[in-house]
Amino acid sequence: MSELTHASAPKRFVGRQLLGSSQLVLGAILAALCIAISIAAPQFYSEANIIAILRQCALVLIVASGMTMLIITAEVDLSVGASLAFVGCIGMAVLNSTHSLSLGMLAALAFAGGVGLFNGLVVTRLRVNSLIATIGTMMMLQGGVYLFTREAVQNHNQMASFTDLGAGYVGAVPVPVILAALIFVVAYITLRFTTLGRYLYAVGANDKAVRLSGLRSERLKLFAFVVTGLCVGVAGMILSSLMNAGQPTAGRGFELTVIAAVILGGTSLLGGRGSLFGTLLGVLVLKVIDNGIIILGWNQDLQMVVPGVVIILATYLDIIRNRANVR
Amino acid sequence: MSVDFLHPEKGAAIDTNVPALELRGIDKRFPGVVALDNVDFILEPGKIHALMGENGAGKSTLIKIIAGVYGKDAGTIRMRGREVDIKSPRDSLKEGIKVVFQEIALISEFTVAENIFLEGYPTGRAGSIDWKKIRADSAALFDRIGFNVDPSARTGSLPVSQQQMVEIARALAHEARVVVMDEPTSSLTPNEVSLLFTVIRRLAALGIAVVYVSHKLDEVFEIADTVTVLRDGRHISTRPIGEHTSDTLIQDMIGRRIDNLFPRKRGAAGSKIALSVEKLSTAKKLNDVSFEARAGEVLGFFGLMGAGRTELAKAIVGYDPITAGTITVDGSRLAPHDTRTGVKLGIGLLTEDRKSEGLMGELPVYQNASLASLGAFARLGFVDKASEHRAVQDYVDRFRIKTPSLFQQVKNLSGGNQQKVLIARWLMRGLKVIVVDEPTRGIDVGAKSEIFALIDRLAGEGLAVIMMTSEMPELLGLADRIAVMCEGRLTAIMSREEATQEKILNAAIG
User: Fold this and answer.
1) Which of residues 269-298 of A touch B (CB under 8 A)?
2) Is residue B31 part of a domain?
3) Could you tell me the pTM of the whole model?
4) In which band, very low, low, confident or very high, does the pLDDT at A304 lie, cut at 50, 70 and 90?
5) How far apart are CA A116 and CA A82, in angstroms?
6) Residues B301 and B249 reside in one and the same domain
7) CATH assignment at residue B364
8) Which of A112, A303, B153, B440 is most buried as measured by Cβ atoms within 10 A of its Cβ?
9) Do B476 and B331 reside in the same domain of the chain?
10) Average pLDDT of A22-51?
11) Same domain, yes or no: B62 and B111
12) Using the beta-carbon criterion (under 8 Å), do B363 and A199 form an inter-chain contact?
């Protein structure tokens, strides 16, 4: 008899996960958007446009992968946009002076990982609320980048391998998309199948229970901060490759796009709940909207307005769906 | 005919022949429990009336009915002879009843004076708030109760004892006829207690009927005029304090023999020392606590509220920092303030506060159960879900955990089933010492005996069980040995055979 329950339970679970999550709502929104846009503008479905959308998604998805983990632990990082710009400048400067892509990359990762570590230590050791701590870091980085460089750090040696990082292709697929897919898959597997992933959810759901169970809840949060930082490192290098320079002004508002995508994907700011698949859908929805506004020739300022409306709408639909489930 | 306490000469005299508050035949039922059964409770003006009883006797239900927090199922309430209908805390306040609960209900960001006049600020010309009058009136109120608190101090910055005074002053501002104090001394120092008593006597002298809820015998003998004892939701006795001795009072409180809710299946405890605690102290509470626990025994810790049981529980599992002392589990020293080595050595805590320290409410049953033992189900960091689910299912079956599936969010389970999930969490890990803190708190009667049986089984499987409890029957029914705490110190440790309720209560009072 208990064999029976074993066999049937996981199936029910999968079914419930698909139906019972905000991803259904989000998937429907995404489908509706795609259909509506392609009716109005058939060129939406061209290969070139799809590749363009995916490339747009890559940067956001890379950072959102880390951010999803972090928000699942009930913390948040608002400094990712400021860090993104700084990382690009540092990576470019190191690249210019060393002529080595790996050293540039390493410097970028070290700096961005260091920012994550700093955020994590402030939050877990000094017990400063992560919202406040990372706003502080954001301001430090936004000002600090101008102490580092007054203007954009230009690409002096134009290494092909560096240019490929942002603009290259493997077959028909842009390199940033491949990097994003890799990071996404690793993060997905970690969250879904490993003990580490389970502990991240646990620490977000109840960090006291985690500590009483003999686990180090602070270390887990610290880990998520550093991972988010490292993701910013990768994204920052891609961005500077795309812009062919390290831009201190880049990345303004980037943190909001990333967090919006994560939350749109159904990850709870309270921690313990969320999924990377939802984040992927969230990123896609935001970027399809961006793309649609451009293709349809609408006023570009709507690129900010429409996603704002979508976030509120999607969250509201999710509440309605939850209420219906309870009944 | 209200009494103006600021200017008593203007008010009408209080008629001492009519009871200030008269409750007759009060019934209150909760699902599965009769909390109050035909209880009478009569308060005379100007008298201090102690309300006593064990936990679960119905004291707090009764005062919550007086306060309008709960509605009564049957019975009548009269204020000064007039029947009243108290449906909400607001009604209660309007009738002149002020309940000072253990948790202070003041706005900590406001000043003392602002809190006192919270329900109605006196206004001056053009409807602006008359701050001068507020400060002056507050000062006058404090003067009357003979206690000095700066009316313009921020309330949150005051010690608890002074916040209680603010609550009392607030009662006077509302022209209260009845003031109920729920275990007011549980977080006070002896000096603060004697100050509080002075203030309470002043209230009585003003003609206010004071209800003093406590289970501290010495305090009741010192302050009360009359004592009412409740037991199991029934009124047992109301007598002038002069007719009582400690023994008669304790007898009234306990009364019955404890029935065999506790089927003991385990054998005698072994001789191996599983846990040894020496000279343990913490910054705030514990003071030089030493004891040993053997494998296979249940060592019960009893103490009144604030005795330091929970603090002890959290310190010995490494959750809270300690200032002195050593903890040894199965021969190995525990690094203080480190649950990681604690769990590795085999000591874990079943917390008293399931919701905030035990459960991950949003997460499914199986993840809650396997939290402490997940590593055992993993290969190279990947969770083998099939074996994990099998292990959890095994506990769900053995413990008869009622849940529609392993994937149910644990917050949807009943208290008893949640507790079983948390016990399973530790058994899946395999412990040598388990500390259970108030294991049946918030669990309904039916499930309690199942939890008791599980605790018996834990000891039977060779664990040392340290059980913190404020429930006397639980203590006597389950423990092999009984340790008693009072104000952070261990005041007695005795075998079950030599333990009597009187001995335990005496040690708990200190």
Assistant:
1) 272-273
2) no
3) 0.73
4) confident
5) 12
6) no
7) 3.40.50.300
8) A112
9) yes
10) 88
11) yes
12) no
